[in-house]
Protein: General stress protein
Organism: Acetobacter syzygii
Amino acid sequence: MAKDKIDTIENKIEAKVRDAKGHVKDAAGGLTGDIGLQAEGKFDQFAGHVQEDFADLYEEGESAVEKAVTFVRDKPLLSLGIVSVVGILLGWLFFPRRNRS
C-alpha cells in the first residue's frame, strides 16, 4: 500500500509539472504568435488536469477498498449475509422462474 501512495504522489507531482509546462508553452505561443506552440501548451494543461484527476480517483477507490476490507474483517458474518442477499436478489432479477403449466 505504501508504494501505491508514493506512486499516486509522484503522479500528482508529474501532473502539476505538466500543467505548469503547458502554461509556459501557452504563454510563449501567445507572445510569439505561434499557434502550434500555444495549442501544445493547452494540450499539456489538459493532460496535466486529467492525470491529476485520475490520481485523485485512484486514491478514492483505494480508500473505498480499504474500508470494505476492514468491514469484512470486523464483521465477517454480516458481510456473508449481505453478499448472500445480494446474490439471491440478482438471481431473481436475471433468472426469473418460468411458469410450467
Notes: The mean pLDDT is 89.
